[in-house]
Structures are given as structure tokens and as C-alpha cells.
Design brief:
Blueprint lengths: L1 H66 L17 E3 L2 E9 L4 E2 L4 E2 L2 E2 L1 H13 L6 H9 L13 H4 L27 H7 L3 E2 L7 E2 L5 H4 L8 H14 L25 H5 L2 E2 L4 E10 L2 E12 L2 E8 L6 H17 L1
Helix pairs in contact: 2-3
């Protein structure tokens, strides 16, 4: 009887141990599920905050279209970065960047044909930043639908298939600027030099002279002095005196030399504007010590704004791009 009672006691103790282990396992699993659920909840909450930031920035563009239909410039409310907006356990901040302040790579080929003036403009811009202007040939070949090589630096499938690993030309408009790194002649260094001045929006987009940089505007003509253009840009931004029509640009001392008798004004004016249609909203949500990013490419037509592309990759700091642009400008002025 004593032996039987001992065995029963050991069995009960063994069952208690097993039950305790199982209970601890269930408790740990529940804690993990709660933690994972909390993370998913925070992610969903951050996404909602980010979309709300996009909506708010879109409303700024709509209000701007209603109240200021003559031009878009950097003194307007949409161009100012948003201060951090407090939310539960975090903040939301954002800003709008004018994509029309850059040269659109897809201007080179549109409406079924190459654009001669846009092609020449890109060549001058490449030269301004220290790259070979002939690289515009490979940029055009990357997006035009034919297999005909343009010039000595052009490239089609026969060139790209010979790379390691091999690939083919896109033969379509650029979907994003980073795609340029796949084009012949563009390594990381050359891409970094040109990246601050280019964009890739789906439709023909003229450059807004009220928001463009001096480096970009100096590509209007090889005869322009970048130091004089920079001085005009400084006066434009500091004095908040913006153009109400493109033709006024040619009356400015820095740009008078660009109007040659053998260069029809309409050919250059077609590439320039005083209003913007394409913008990029950059939103950062800081929640519970974590950050979530949303970059939305926006198209504004009249008083309607549409997001045509979104991604959630980390947003690069502007400091490096601005510093790079400043260094390029200083080098160009010295030359």
C-alpha cells in the first residue's frame, strides 16, 4: 500500500509538472501572439496616419489651385515642410517636392516621336554636371520602342544582352529615376551627379522656372553663365518675386543671351512653364519608437489631385543631395 501511494504521488507530481509546462507554453504563445498583434496594429495605425498625411498634402495642392492659379512658386504654403504633428505615441511629418522643378527623362520621347529640344536640353544638362552630353543618346534609346541605335553612345538590346548578367532595354518610359543606373554610361557616380536635377513622371512635363535650380536653368543654353543664373535664382527666392509668364524670363539680364535670332522662342518656351502638375509627397510616421515611410507621386490637374505611384522605402535625407548640388554649382562657377 505504501508503494502504491508513492507511485500515485509521483504520478500526480509528474502530471502537475507537465501541466505547468503546458501552461507556461500556452502563456508564452499568447504573449507572442499579443506582441505580434500589437505590432500589426501599430503597422496598420502607422499606415493610416501616413495615408492621412498624403491626403492633407493633397488638400494643400487643391487649395493652392483654387487660390493661386497664375503660378506655382516656393513661397506658397504647399512648398513649406510640415511641422511634426502629434499623434498617439508618436508624430507625423511630411513635405511636398515639386517634380516639375526637375527635368523629366520621359520628355525625350513622347507622342510617338523623339523630342529634339528636350534631347538637346538633356545633353546640355549632362555637360553642366560634368558628364558627356552624348549620354543623352543612350537615355533616348532606353525608352524609344525601336531597335535603332542613336549615335555613338546609343544602346539597344544587342549591347545590354552582352552585360553580366544580360538584360534588355526597357523600350518604354522610365518608371522611376533609379532605372537610369541600368542605362549605358551611367554608373553610381554619374547617376549621383545627375540625380538631383531629373525626375521620371509619366507625361510630358515642362520645367517650372519659378522652382527650378540654377544648375537646371543654366542648361537652357550653353551661353548662359551659371553664376549669373544663380544670382537670379537667389533674388527670385529671397525676394519672392516670381514670373507670371515664361516670356518674362528673357527680359532678365541673366537670360537675355539665351535668345539667339536663329533659335525660335517657341522651341525653348515649350520646355518651360510657371506652373507645376507633378509633385512628390514624402511622409514620415514615428510611432512607438519606430518609423514608417510613404512616398506618393501626385498628379494635379485643375483642382483634382491623384496619387499614381506609392512606395514605402526609407526617404533619403535632403542634406546629401543639397550638398552635392552645392558642390557641383561651386565647381561650375570656378570653371
Amino acid at each position: 500500500m505504501k508503494n502504491q501511494r508513492g507511485v500515485a504521488l509521483l504520478t500526480i507530481l509528474f502530471m502537475v509538472v507537465i501541466a505547468s509546462i503546458m501552461a507556461m507554453g500556452i502563456l508564452n504563445q499568447q504573449q507572442r501572439m499579443l506582441q505580434e498583434g500589437s505590432i500589426l496594429l501599430r503597422q496598420d495605425q502607422a499606415w493610416i496616419y501616413a495615408k492621412s498625411g498624403e491626403y492633407f498634402l493633397s488638400e494643400l495642392l487643391i487649395n493652392d489651385a483654387r487660390n493661386s492659379k497664375n503660378n506655382d512658386n516656393l513661397s506658397e504654403q504647399w512648398a513649406q515642410p510640415l511641422p511634426p504633428f502629434p499623434v498617439e505615441d508618436g508624430t507625423v511629418t511630411g513635405r511636398l517636392l515639386d517634380q516639375s522643378a526637375r527635368f523629366n527623362l520621359n520628355n525625350l520621347y513622347h507622342d510617338g516621336a523623339p523630342d529634339k529640344e528636350a534631347f538637346e536640353f538633356l545633353g546640355r544638362l549632362l555637360k553642366r554636371v560634368g558628364l558627356a552630353p552624348e549620354l543623352a543618346q543612350s537615355v533616348l534609346d532606353w525608352q524609344d520602342p525601336d531597335d535603332t541605335v542613336t549615335g555613338a553612345m546609343g544602346a539597344e538590346d544587342s549591347f545590354y544582352l552582352g552585360q553580366q548578367p544580360g538584360y534588355v532595354a526597357a523600350n518604354r518610359p522610365f518608371l522611376q529615376v533609379e532605372e537610369l543606373r541600368q542605362v549605358r554610361g551611367f554608373d553610381q557616380r554619374s547617376y549621383d551627379l545627375i540625380a538631383p536635377y531629373i525626375t521620371a513622371v509619366p507625361y510630358f512635363s515642362p520645367i517650372n522656372v519659378n522652382t527650378a535650380s540654377a544648375m537646371l536653368l543654366s542648361a537652357i543654353s550653353d551661353d548662359l553663365q551659371i553664376s549669373q543664373v544663380q544670382e537670379w535664382v537667389n533674388q527670385r527666392d529671397q525676394g519672392m518675386q516670381y514670373l507670371d509668364q515664361v516670356g518674362t524670363l528673357w527680359t532678365q539680364p541673366a537670360f537675355k543671351i539665351a535668345k539667339k535670332p536663329d533659335t525660335p522662342a517657341e522651341n525653348i518656351d515649350r520646355l518651360l512653364a510657371i506652373q507645376s502638375e507633378f509633385f512628390q509627397a514624402q511622409i514620415i510616421v514615428s510611432l512607438s519608437g519606430r518609423k514608417r515611410y510613404l512616398t506618393s507621386n501626385l498628379y494635379r490637374q485643375g483642382e483634382n489631385v491623384m496619387a499614381y505611384q506609392r512606395h514605402q522605402m526609407p526617404i533619403p535625407a535632403l542634406a546629401s543631395s543639397s550638398q552635392n548640388a552645392l558642390e557641383l554649382l561651386q565647381q561650375a562657377i570656378k570653371q
